[in-house]
Request: fold
Amino acid sequence: MLEIKIKEALFLQCEAFVNKRLQTVEEVISSNQKALQSETKSSAGDKHETGRAMLQLEMEKAGQQLAGIRQMKEILAKVDISKKAEIAHLGSVVFTEKVNYFLSISAGQLTVKDKIYFAVSVSSPIGKMLLGKKTNEVFSFNGNVIEISAIL
Reply:
């Protein structure tokens, strides 16, 4: 039961991370749309065009971030925290003697009950290494030999 609580807490933190990023990007898009609409043609035409071009670039960047956030939401939708397996998969918590990982999205460092976990994407270098591993398996990453002590 405790295992599901850890996974649930990690999953909820990942969801909060994605929602916060979504809110930030939506605010940037809204702000840029207002700025684009309020841009008025002045006698300094070049300055006006430069300002619009910069806003367009910001909008494109925000659009790319929005696509990344949607992708993270899709990945989180596939995570089944109730599923326990002997082999590390999407949604697994992997314990090692050095670092604990939650295979989900790249959300960075998370804390549950004073323990630190790193939420990593299965497509990240460490995520690819962990995927398919079993308890007591040893692997090498960044010159370090790491042993998996448990998988939830």
User: Anything to note?
Assistant: Residues 2-38 form the longest helix (37 residues). Residues 2-78 form one domain.
